[in-house]
Amino acid sequence: MITGQEEYESIFSPERFEEILYGESPTDAEILTLHEHRIEEWLNEDSDADVILGYSLVEVGDAHGNRGIALILCTGYSFSGLTIWVKEIFDTKTAAMAYLKENGSTLES
Questions:
Q1: What does the alpha-carbon distance between residue 66 and residue 58 come to, in Å, rounded to a whole number?
Q2: If pLDDT is split at 50, 70 and 90, which confidence band does 49 have?
Q3: Rounded CA separation 33/20 (Å)
Q4: Is 76 in contact with 98 (CB distance < 8 Å)?
């Protein structure tokens, strides 16, 4: 399974990939293509949890009353090791889900 920049380069033309790298938003059709590509890869019998991204959304807060939604990402297996990291703290669950959707990691709305 290809991930990261290689994945984007396999989907977008070099020119379009550069536009997106410099801040232009992908179109709905491009996001759908990315979703479909990831689902195909995840269903591929050669794929495994070392590269399939899992996520969790958790409400977090601090001593000053600030609240947010932490997007926690994970790859790997419990028996061989997990890689877990906080991608970002979002203001709302809707914003976190929009990020996941825009990056091809979920089809949920």
A1: 14
A2: low
A3: 15
A4: no
Cα–Cα dist 65/72, whole Å: 21
Contact 105, 52 (CB under 8 A): no
Distance between CA 57 and CA 49 in Å, rounded?
A: 19
Query: Which of helix, strand or coil describes residue 70?
Result: strand
Torsion (CA) 57, 76, 51, 60 in degrees, nearest 10: 20
Rounded to two decimals, what is the model's pTM?
0.56
Count CB atoms within 10 A of the CB of residue 104: 22
Residue 80: CB atoms within 10 A of its CB come to 9
